[in-house]
Write a structure and sequence with these properties.
Blueprint (H helix, E strand, L loop, with lengths): L2 E4 L7 E5 L5 E5 L10 H12 L3 H19 L2
Antiparallel strand pairs: 1-2, 2-3
Helix pairs in contact: 1-2
Length: 74
């Protein structure tokens, strides 16, 4: 039974695919801090906020403020 190893993100995430069944198994994924948000997730958060989610709008406003304040200190 032959296996193919794939990585859709340049080696951070690795999948093993069985050549007979096509079944794909996650072998390794990146270890990221709990607060990490990838680009796709962030886009989805912004999209949801733009659709009227007030909680996300408020949190994004606070995030933007903290980010701007932290840049001023550099």
């Amino acid at each position: 039974m032959a296996k193919i190893y794939e990585s859709p993100d340049g080696g951070e995430t690795i999948f093993e695919r069985d050549t007979l069944t096509g079944k794909r198994i996650l072998i390794e994924k990146p270890k990221r801090p709990e607060w990490h948000i990838d680009d796709h997730e962030f886009s989805e958060i912004v999209h949801t906020a733009n659709e009227g989610n007030k909680t996300l709008q408020n949190l994004l406003s606070k995030l933007k403020l903290v980010y701007e304040l932290s840049r001023e200190r550099e």
